[in-house]
Amino acid sequence: MSPFKLVVGSKDWHLHAFWLIVVLFAIVLFLEYSTPPAYVFGYLYIGPVLIATAHLSRRTAFTFTAIACILTMLNVWLPDVSTVEASTISNRSIATIALIVTGVLSDRNRLYQQTVLQQQNKLNSQEHLARLREEFASTLTHDLKTPLLGAIETLKAFQQGSFGEVRPEQKTVLATMMRSHKTTLQLVETLLNVYRNDNEGIKLDLVPVDLVKLAEEVTTTMTSLAASRRIHISLNYGTSDFRKFLWIKGDPLQLQRVIANLLTNAINHSPRGGKVEIALEPGSTYQTVKVIDTGAGVKPGEIPHLFERFYQGQSDRQAKGSGLGLYLSRQIVEAHHGTIWAENAQGGAVFAFRLPTFPYHPPA
Question: Strand (E) positions, 314-363?
Answer without folding.
Answer: 339-345, 348-356
